[in-house]
Amino acid sequence: MSKDQIKIFCPATIANISCGFDVLGLALGTVGDEMVIRKMAQPGIKISSITGQDLPMETERNVAGVAGMAMLAALKYTNGFEIEITKKIKPGSGIGSSAASAAGAVWGINQLLGTPCSEHQLVEFAMEGEKLASGSAHADNVAPAIYGGITLVRSSNPLDVVRINPPSQLYATVVHPHIEIKTSDSRKILKTTISLADGIRQWGNLGALVAGLFQEDYALISRSLEDHIIEPIRSILIPGFEDIKSGAIAAGALGCGISGSGPSIFALSKGKDTANNVAKAMSGVLDKIELNHDAYVSEINTKGFRILS
Amino acid sequence: MSKDQIKIFCPATIANISCGFDVLGLALGTVGDEMVIRKMAQPGIKISSITGQDLPMETERNVAGVAGMAMLAALKYTNGFEIEITKKIKPGSGIGSSAASAAGAVWGINQLLGTPCSEHQLVEFAMEGEKLASGSAHADNVAPAIYGGITLVRSSNPLDVVRINPPSQLYATVVHPHIEIKTSDSRKILKTTISLADGIRQWGNLGALVAGLFQEDYALISRSLEDHIIEPIRSILIPGFEDIKSGAIAAGALGCGISGSGPSIFALSKGKDTANNVAKAMSGVLDKIELNHDAYVSEINTKGFRILS
């Protein structure tokens, strides 16, 4: 049991699921980073290598470093950990790159220490990493990464996370167009007020979406995957968004929206075959406008992180 | 089977359940009107008696009459029905007095005709009665009356109602202070815009409340029963509201808020004993400020209407 080293899979995540802006996220199964975490005698966190992306190695400038340090401080742990990160999730893609690293560090350390911390605590530590990445300690991506499945963040402060088991046939398709949208920019264009009527529509949809997830009612999930507040504003930053979305729906998707703050676009489908068809349709639109992109199809990852070795 | 007359119980309902403003309602079991509906040879709806309240008897000015006529027109039914109403729910109390009558008429007629109409259709007919009563064809009260249990109205137009089974130990307490608040007035004081931050808080709470209902997680239900948008504005119309609410919570209620557009105040509790204690606490505050009121304790009515004879 007392391993000195662990290699883990760190899932990508979709946050801001349509009507669940700022509260609803899910973990992906087939898209993610890898991380090796190793006990070391010296105190603190040492980021010893980052492969695949050019990111800061200094502990206090690295999300995994900051999250890990928050955990060690809370545990009053006097030794430390060395971390090697293999990035496959591109930073700025909108599928939780920083969350995978921040949450991965604390999840992995927790495993090496014999799981002294609850998932709730791990989310709180990982949020410190998110604070470094985006300026706000949000849990939208770290919560689904750590809890697995679908998570609803009822409140960030105090933290209150509700885990929802995904319907068994729910699949996600994600396309990542290779353009850059800064999270801070994509937050800046949002209005700070909304109409009460739009608010009612949004919470009606979110309540129904949660009910649809519990009842495994795919038609209800589909009807509820609407966002009349954020999507109309943010989607103007994503070339081809309307065509990609209508292509996804025409190919059978239950719904489609912006992942996180973009530019990635997600669709949810019933069944893997449909999710593959949806990927083709979404890719097709991006090919037509000659926008390089990645496309992924994944089941919803009910476990979150997992140990590879 | 082919009865010519039916006597039914018409449940009172709580709408606007805290964070579920305009979407979430529930049916009460022990508070309601009675209605006798009888086939008649002449076409149309005849309101032959109203006991307990002074309300218009003319078909086109009576909510049961209007709802019933909408149903007969849709069915192209050429004979008619006579309706006797015994009002126990006071109009203007905020627990669905008009909904009980409008929905009662169409539910009862549906029974006498061998249930040709779905619950969805019955809600649509009953909404015509609500339109007469309040100027808008809302489903907040008629939906829980007809479906029973807890209902979420995802959308009124097109109508989309989600039925949620109530947790088995959930009880409602309602106090009705004898003051008059017109629905139209209580709508007028609402702001037409809200902050995005308040909106996010509201839909986070509603999503969590729905999850709590499915998971029978009373602590989560309790944490989610918040309304930072409507309640702070409307509660100023209800004398003693803050004390009544804090009294209810101190007596063990999971949450407390304004029923419909007031002046009734509801609390939800786990278990009947707690609900009774909560009723005492709420009544106590109203007694102290010498405000006449009724107080009710009820299980959540999972059936909605029921046949008495």
From TrEMBL, chains A, B:
Which terms does the record give in the GO molecular function aspect? Answer: ATP binding; homoserine kinase activity
Q: What is this protein called?
A: Homoserine kinase
Catalytic activity annotated for this protein?
Answer: L-homoserine + ATP = O-phospho-L-homoserine + ADP + H(+)
**Domain GHMP kinase N-terminal span(s) in chain numbering:** 73-149
Concerning its family, UniProt says: Belongs to the GHMP kinase family. Homoserine kinase subfamily.
Pfam families (alphabetical) = GHMP_kinases_C, GHMP_kinases_N
Q: In which pathway does it act?
A: Amino-acid biosynthesis; L-threonine biosynthesis; L-threonine from L-aspartate: step 4/5
- Role description: Catalyzes the ATP-dependent phosphorylation of L-homoserine to L-homoserine phosphate.
The keyword Nucleotide-binding is annotated on this UniProt entry: yes
The entry's localization annotation reads: Cytoplasm
Query: Which NCBIfam families does the record associate with it?
Result: PRK01212.1-4, thrB
Major localisation: cytoplasm
Which processes are annotated in GO (biological process)? threonine biosynthetic process
| EC number, UniProt record | 2.7.1.39
Q: Which GO terms describe its cellular component?
A: cytoplasm
Keyword annotations for this protein, in alphabetical order, are: Amino-acid biosynthesis, ATP-binding, Cytoplasm, Kinase, Nucleotide-binding, Threonine biosynthesis, Transferase
Q: Per its UniProt record, what InterPro entries does this chain match?
A: GHMP_kinase_C_dom, GHMP_kinase_C_sf, GHMP_kinase_N_dom, Homoserine_kinase, Ribosomal_Su5_D2-typ_SF, Ribsml_uS5_D2-typ_fold_subgr
Q: Which residues form the GHMP kinase C-terminal domain?
A: 211-284
Q: What class of enzyme is it?
A: transferase
